User: Fold TRAP-type C4-dicarboxylate transport system, small permease component from Desulfopila aestuarii DSM 18488.
Amino acid sequence: MKQFASLCQKGSDSLERFCLFGAGVLLVINLASVMLGVFGRFYRPPIWTLDLAKVTLVWMVMLAAAPALKRGEHMAITILVNMLPYRFRRFVKAIRTIVFFGVLALMLTLGSLYAIKMQVFTVMSLGISKTIPFLAIPIGMGLMMIEYALQQFIPLKNNSNCSSCENIAAREDLP
Assistant:
């Protein structure tokens, strides 16, 4: 089991590096596009800068969502769950995991369907199909689903990257 957990940890770390690198590249492109649009206003701004900034922002956020999930940086209200008795807390956490996977699967499915429907439209200033910006949602949800699945097999004690995940003490008292 430790080998599988180690494999999941390596996969999770690789996925995190890939997503953060992609988000970083998109951040640089976004900043360059916005700066070009701002400074171009004094002369003749390229019409495509605003649309490029929007597309890169959406993709950047969706790529960074999986590493944020790994690090526990998404908002969660755990005060009530942590106050529950051990057995009920474990049940609520299991339900929460199932619901979270369900929401991700729903967003992946609906996002894919919507992106496919948008293939007949184009972003005129960029000359690309609207499918490209809308694909950020199903791809981001898929990356989050993969990351969350990998995290289920990594013991929290060994997960040094997760600084603000659920209370480590709450997991350590599990038998």
Observations:
- Helices lie at 2-40, 49-70, 79-83, 86-117, 131-134, 136-151, 168-172.
- The beta strands are 122-123, 128-129.
- The longest strand covers residues 122-123.
